Amino acid sequence: MAIIQLGAAFKNFWVRRAKYPKFRKKGVHDRFILTNDQFSLDGHRIRIPHLGWVRMQEALRFTGKLISATVSRVADRWFISITVAADAIPLRPAENQGATGPHTDSPKACGCPYRDMRKRPESDCLSSIPVLPTSGRTPCTSSPHGSGDDFSACLSKS
Predict the structure, then answer these.
(1) Does residue 154 register a pLDDT over 50?
(2) What residue segments make up the domains of the chain, in order of their start?
(3) Is the whole model's pTM more than 0.70, yes or no?
């Protein structure tokens, strides 16, 4: 596999699609590829040449023809990625999708009249805000929009 990749790298170099191929440095992006005739699987184990049987964290989840395996090192831990040509991948039915009850609308944004006050000048809207009667004062009725507790006039004004 390495000879094939080196041949492709030189081919790209001679047609000026890439720079001259460089050897990878030891310890940087450590990885190697195994073709389907170089490894075998047995449950939670994989047989790698010159290493023997190596334990895997989980068994292979898909059935099909094994294509290749890439063994790589990330942060001083070794990982293997196995390529499988699967015929059909069985899909589980989704548990939380689909209608299971009566139709409900999505929640809407607050229809609060104070929301649009930031778009209007202060003199238009502040006079229509009702004053709480706890201080003995009554709501403002001198608004040009009508009574002090009618917010629709302030919002509908264009």
Answers:
(1) no
(2) 25-85, 113-156
(3) no
